[in-house]
DNA sequence: TTCGGTACTGTAAGCGCTTACGGAGCCACG
DNA sequence: CGTGGCTCCGTAAGCGCTTACAGTACCGAA
């Protein structure tokens, strides 16, 4: 019947008893369009209508259904955050920094822990679920990231040399250089070894480059190839054996991160080789434990929280279309001199 | 015209160029219903249709639009994870454990860091965005949680005495008791003090209860009221002054967590009071630093990862409706004896 | 041959929003 | 008094799915 034509189509059943835009409209005596306009502030509405809608919405404890909003507006108000693990303070700190800024822009966070096995599916699927993706995981191939970046805005943290997406990193090479120079110039070290695999992440590669540069500038050669161990406690334990197996005992160990340095230091000490005295030991990241061990671990502090914040800001802009050409954002790093290099307390 | 009646309504424009269920249906030569059935596996489809749909979907790189799915099915396939902070290893570990199990059930994770200021809005809004909520934050009032639990399935980790939702905790009282008895019976401590505020969290309250019970069972009285400091490094620093200000110097400090214990230990040592020798010091949580400091910190290890996993499992069941009555799930805790209590290396 | 099942499939309604479009009411101006 | 412009509002189409319902085709039993 044509008498039906003018009114909103009959609703099914009140599915969940939850208020919808229809119930709010009815209670406020306006159309759903007006409710939408009032609540999203996208168009002018009369003071009376505005007030009535607000009142009705409040009385019904109305919360807009997220899925309906997204479907109609083609916006998710959500960023995906892709990390490989939450081990150690690095990712936690990064996530906190990211969250803070994202929340300021009313963006929600979808946490994706992307193991290798489940990655392929997940990563591509994200484009049907979020507005943009932040990646802070080292072991995802560059091509995979590039493919994703072609579908949806992507910002990457902590690694470099990526095409088509913004990158946020902290300065590594110069600081690693300075730290290494400190060992050479101040502590007179001559037989230095880098502990960590430069090929595993561009970040570590940059640190290694700084290390290498410092040696070259001082006319030295490394005592050995980098000791390629994983960036974990286990890696540090493994490094103990490698160090002891070296033809000539090094007098300085520059580690890719604190975890490795701490485990390596503890292992050496068990063999009566005392970091700070018998050799210099440095880490990277300034984890909490670094300032509790004795001797305190000389290391470098990345502005991790700020990196997260910057990444969130960038991605938000990029999603909103108000960002310039993609580029690389480098934040400053600070060397933290404690005693494991040989400095006095 | 009635000739139009039989065919699917005309689509607007190909909004984003992305494949939809319509394009897949068209390419496969079937209806969208069949596509949906094939891809979700909710009904039998002929081998030929199945294959054609799969092929078309693959060729078009089709990913179902999450918002449309949710809107139509009233399911989000997402859990909210509410935490107060990611500081320290506790929350990271919890989150990892949770994520692992949630992923196994194909549930996504919405990360909500709920500061006090933004909490009220966020928490209630979650019901229009996720299927269930996991809360691992200590400072949310019980009533607020109860209110949320009335709207949507909720599971709480690490605190007790909550109505209407599942609770996952680790055993605290007995382990705290055992740890305290160790100090009394093995190390002959008599002047014990608890460091931490039992009123801040039910978890710490339980540890304090165990501490208190051990004293009572041994016919002792605590030397002083609990030193009510925050559970942070700053709290530990503050505790140093409190300890030194005590009328009688305690010979054992039982701390609410490792962070406090580590900072307190470092502070005391600076005053030439050596943990392990001059007094016993214990923590709780077994953070990474606990095994690197000297003396190694005697502490207790909660099965944090398992707690996260259990919580995810519970919430998934509860959302699916296949869970029994709400209840409390207690996992075992393990005392970790190192040297800060006075034990030899 | 007829009829009831069984195995699939298509049609279309509906999920709860956003938003283009057009209309109503009102004022100022010619 | 007619007209143009402005402000506010309602109508309805559409977002891309799921799923109830109603076939259709085919087979075996009566």
From TrEMBL, chains A, B:
SMART domains: HTH_LACI (SM00354). Keywords: DNA-binding, Transcription, Transcription regulation. Gene3D superfamilies: 3.40.50.2300, lambda repressor-like DNA-binding domains. Residues 19-73 form the HTH lacI-type domain. One of its GO terms (molecular function) is DNA binding. InterPro entries: HTH_LacI, LacI/GalR-like_sensor, Lambda_DNA-bd_dom_sf, Peripla_BP_I. This is LacI family DNA-binding transcriptional regulator.
């Amino acid at each position: 019947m044509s008498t039906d034509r003018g009114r909103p189509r009959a609703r099914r059943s009140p599915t969940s008893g939850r208020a919808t835009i229809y119930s709010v409209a009815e209670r406020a005596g306006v159309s759903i369009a007006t409710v939408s306009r009032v609540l999203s502030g996208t168009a002018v509405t009369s003071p009376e209508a505005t007030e009535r809608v607000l009142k009705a919405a409040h009385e019904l404890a109305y919360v807009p259904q997220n899925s309906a909003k997204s479907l109609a507006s083609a916006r998710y108000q959500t960023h995906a955050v892709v990390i490989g693990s939450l081990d150690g303070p690095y990712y936690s700190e990064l996530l906190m920094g990211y969250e803070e800024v994202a929340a300021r822009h009313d963006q929600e966070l979808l946490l994706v822990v992307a193991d290798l096995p489940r990655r392929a599916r997940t990563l591509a699927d994200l484009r049907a679920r979020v507005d943009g993706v932040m990646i802070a995981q080292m072991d995802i191939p560059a091509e995979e990231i590039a493919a994703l970046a072609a579908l949806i805005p992507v910002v990457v943290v902590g690694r470099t040399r990526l095409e088509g997406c913004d990158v946020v990193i902290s300065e590594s090479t110069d600081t690693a250089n300075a730290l290494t120079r400190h060992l050479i110039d101040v502590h007179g070290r001559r037989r230095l070894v880098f502990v960590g695999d430069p090929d595993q992440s561009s970040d570590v590669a940059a640190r290694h480059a700084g290390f290498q540069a410092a040696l070259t500038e001082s006319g030295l050669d490394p005592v050995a190839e980098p000791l390629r161990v994983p960036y974990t406690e286990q890696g540090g334990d493994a490094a103990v054996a490698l160090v002891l197996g070296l033809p000539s005992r090094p007098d300085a160990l520059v580690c890719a991160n604190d975890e490795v340095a701490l485990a390596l230091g503890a292992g050496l000490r068990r063999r009566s080789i005392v970091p700070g005295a018998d050799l210099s030991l440095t880490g990277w990241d300034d984890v909490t434990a670094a300032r509790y061990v004795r001797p305190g671990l000389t290391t470098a502090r990345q502005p991790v929280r700020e990196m997260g914040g910057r990444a969130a800001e960038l991605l938000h802009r990029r999603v909103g279309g108000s960002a310039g050409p993609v580029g690389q954002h480098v934040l400053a790093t600070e060397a933290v001199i404690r005693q494991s290099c040989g400095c006095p307390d």
